[in-house]
Give the backbone structure.
Amino acid sequence: MPRATVTFLGGVQEIGGNKLLVEDGPDRVLFDFGPSFSPEFEEYYVEYLKPRSTNPVKDLLEFGLVPRIPGLYSREALGDADLAYTPPEIHGVFVSHAHMDHAGYLRYLDPEIPVHVGHGTKTLLDAIAASTTMKYGDHRWTIFEDGHPIRIGGIEVVPYPVDHSIPFAYGFLVRTSAGTLAYTGDFRHHGPRAADTHRFFEAVAREEVDALAIEGTRAGPDPRHNFTEEGVREGVDRVLAGHRDLALACTYPRDVDRLTTLYRAAQAADRELVVSARTAHLLAQVAARFPTGAVPVPGSSPGLAVYDRRKKRSSVWERPYLEGALTAEEVRDHGRKYLLALDFAHFAELIDLRPARGSPFVHSMSEPFSEEDVSDHVLHNWLDHFGLVFHQMHASGHASGPELLELVRSTGARQVFPIHTEHPEAFGPIGASVRSPERARPYPIAP
């Protein structure tokens, strides 16, 4: 076997589920560890049919939904699986960002394996774990600094921030004894931090990398409009200017850029942005990682309110945000004053809110619908029932197909491995350097 290799254990001809194993002699480092969004998962687990909490890795191994690697999983997660527990044989895990498909399976890892994340990513993971049922497990967390190398045996990893639909996303240069691999994580270069993405790809080009593992979510057929964040703002401004009733919006609950856009649009329209307690908690936790005033903060930013969803009991973490929160009756009776950002899980609130027919609903999420959406059919059943008018306005978290090809060419990479895509063939115009990887096959980093 060549001295330094990369093995793609997930993200192969599928969206999400990236798991890259870099090996250099005795040293083994893993990049990202989360579930994929491929139909393969839903062939076995869907809605309430989930892996058992007593031995989840056993259930996922049964159908090949996680890699069968000794020395990776905790004893507790394995349970009585036919993969026996062994002490850690992976020497570090790097997380590119806090989306579920990159971090959602961290809880299954052996807690003795160091997990390397950026400051902001750790803040996000903590906020998500505190306010949802999503847990990431106990680990030896190590916080890296932008651009500062981390050495694990003979492998050196350099993290670079990139622009994505969740803040604090990273790409990596991975230096080995045989050459350098660049791994992009998920990225775009049409968002508020586009300069970060540009700097990362400039670093990749300067490094003259031997291999580039690049996400290609939007490679191939792509019906999405290529809005920028400014374009979303302009669209929301138009919608709010044209209506005098309650306006509603729905976006990804961790898209801080989009929440900030909605907040600025509401302010310009002389409205208040009303968010869930969960969203308020996330904004409160991450705001300190941004320049002062860049992100609205519950309790101190004017024009930001919290919706008091009717529940039997509230959790400890959300109680501070519910003091003075708006009830359904208050929002309904003074709808003109508000832009209400509902989570899909809270759609039943429409029964109490009863917005006026013809009220606008801004769907600021991906088209086609993603893993965090309800189905198109169910969504429109709700909107039609209440007579809400649908508006699609979203800036993707991923680079478009033409942008991907332009960026790959700019790097001069000797090998290009398209991952996190259902259409690796769309990278064909790059030429002979493109290699569509096979799952679990080691590839030499230096060709």
